Amino acid sequence: MNTGAVTMNTRAAALWQRVQHLPRETRDTLVLLAVIAFTTAPHVAHLPTWCTALAVAVLAWRAHIAINGGTLPGRWVMGALLLLVGALTFATERTLLGREAGVTMLVALLALKTLELRARRDALVVFFLGFFLLLTQFLYSQSLLTGLWMLLALWGLLSALVLAHMPVGRPSLAVAAGVAARATALGLPLMALLFALFPRIGPLWGLPQDAAGKTGLSGTLRLGAVAELATDDAIAFRVRFLGARPLDRQMYFRGPVLATTNGREWTRLAPTVPLSQRVRPELRTRGEALRYEVTLEPGRLNVLPLLEATPDRAGAAPQLEGWVFNQRADLQWQADRPLVERIRLEASAWVDFRHGPREAVAGLRDFIALPPQMHPRTRAWALALRDRPELQGADTLRLSAAVQQHIRSGGFTYTLEPGAYGDDPVDEFWLDRKLGFCEHFAAAYVVVMRTLGVPARIVTGYQGTDAAPQDGYWIVRQSNAHAWAEIWLPDEGWLRIDPTASVSPDRVQAGRSLAPPPGFMVGALSTIDPALAARLRGAWEALNNRWNQWVLNYSRSQQFDLMRALGVHTPSWQDLATLLVSLLCGAALIGAAWAWWDRHRQDPWQRLARRVQARLQRLGVVVQPHEPPRTRAARVRGQLGAAGEALAAQLEALDRLRYAESARARTALRHWWPAFAAAARRVPYGTPAAAAARAGSSR
Predict the structure, then answer these.
(1) Same domain, 167 and 227
(2) Burial class of residue 395 (count of CB atoms within 10 Å of its CB; 0-12, 13-18, 19+)
(3) What's the total number of domains in the chain?
(4) Which domain holds residue 181?
(5) Is the pLDDT of residue 414 over 60?
(6) Cα–Cα distance between 367 and 353 in angstroms, integer?
(7) What's this model's pTM, rounded to 2 decimal places?
(8) 81 and 156: one domain?
(9) Which of 148, 132, 111 is nearest to 37 (CA)?
(10) Is position 22 within any domain?
(11) 512 and 522, same structural domain?
């Protein structure tokens, strides 16, 4: 071990020794401040900078006062700080009401309240605010990591609360933490009971927006955007197939359909024809339906990335209580509000399908339009392609095949890092640099086909899944984000064409997206064991999935399923309430019976004090229950005289043990009672006090 490490260990040991020998009040205050800081830490991402700085400064100030024995600030200082907090909150949030303003005020007030820790009453207010702050974190996130963090914070607050209710001696932190852990364990069955049976409206955790607005598909497309999304390894959704799993090349999950462009960015269609003449969503399916279940993570849009093609028909369309889902003419499913919460639904899909009108209609003109001044070189290339002798009079499929052959043999490279493109990205990609991700190939293909007079559009979504399932679910990540194209054929309708398959067949055939560079930790683990990082990630994501399925998505239907499993054939709210009340009453009776049976288990000091009082009364020494050992020692000397000196010495020793180190006190107490009983037996039988006690008992 080097000199620096030895020095660090020495300093750490010295600091620990100093903490162990701090006065109890100082130690307990520092513990409470540390717990408050731990509870507040997850809120830092949501708090204004001034609030975080204020909380850190106030907690550090209070720790300095505790360690150095300083004076707490007066009322004028506290009043000024309170006014400052209110003014800053209003200036930041423009209100003193609502979630953000309320949490900001709560954090600031909790920190300021530590400057008023003068009595147990003040500490109880701090505990109350701390428990309330604990709950507010679930307004922002209810992930498994958040739950584990809050569980540790709860343990810390309960431990500090136990310390505040143990005024005698110097109980160790381990003792308080153990009592808090046992109290938490005793409350877990009741918590599980309330969780399983307490009536709820909609999903249990409907308010937080764990990941809304952070990642996911967008309603527009600029070249390079999907590549940026593909570097995100976060989970987009999970799929469980209720029958045979489709092939990788069949797993296209449809998202926003983009048909309008200014040459640089693609957006959803802005129709130029009356509603009665627009393209109809006719859907024709072949083969067997594929039943599947999908659990969607929160995202930015109200679009459901469902498997192609999920029709809008009875028994096939997605259904979820409290939500309204609609299918657009382009087969895109969307919800009545953004997906700011995790949802789970079932639907049916057909992987062999055609959709759209079979004959030309006015609305198809919208899918041929191109901005007049954009892509002149690519459009010239497309016209030259059509004029080739071998393609004279070729139908749409032959023209499409020729474009895809150009992609295969034209020196194109499929890459996550194509670099920035200029003012006309399609011309530069198609004819110059030839470096691109899926959206480059899809956009250039659509431009070429539109130049050839073929209605075409871009479809964004996801393609493929992880190579292996986790806990029965196939994982679709943001890195599976994809863009492909659709062209319209007479007598057929819309047909999917994926230009990326021409340059990177594995991307479509096996669902293998390009992998972004691994992070530091993953790279280090992969160096040690290439499969270790994947196994660890898989285990963690499987655990997260169970948390999502059985906790966050626990719903009324699952409550009724539980009732059916218990033998109630047609469960209702009345049955649920009856069962809950019955179980709570039973739990209350069991708790009361246990408390009656365990009533003798109290504070060991109080139990010992009663035993000492009974023994002294047999010797004729009258003492009161509330009197400390030193007062009882004085009474022994006053009533028994020299005969009770040894007994009085034992009582004084007991008084010293009350304020000794807890571990040493527990060890000494095991030897104290035998010594005290022996001293009591040595008191002469004929002392005046003993004689008076015998006389009183005979009367």
Answers:
(1) no
(2) exposed
(3) 4
(4) 14-187
(5) yes
(6) 20
(7) 0.61
(8) yes
(9) 111
(10) yes
(11) no
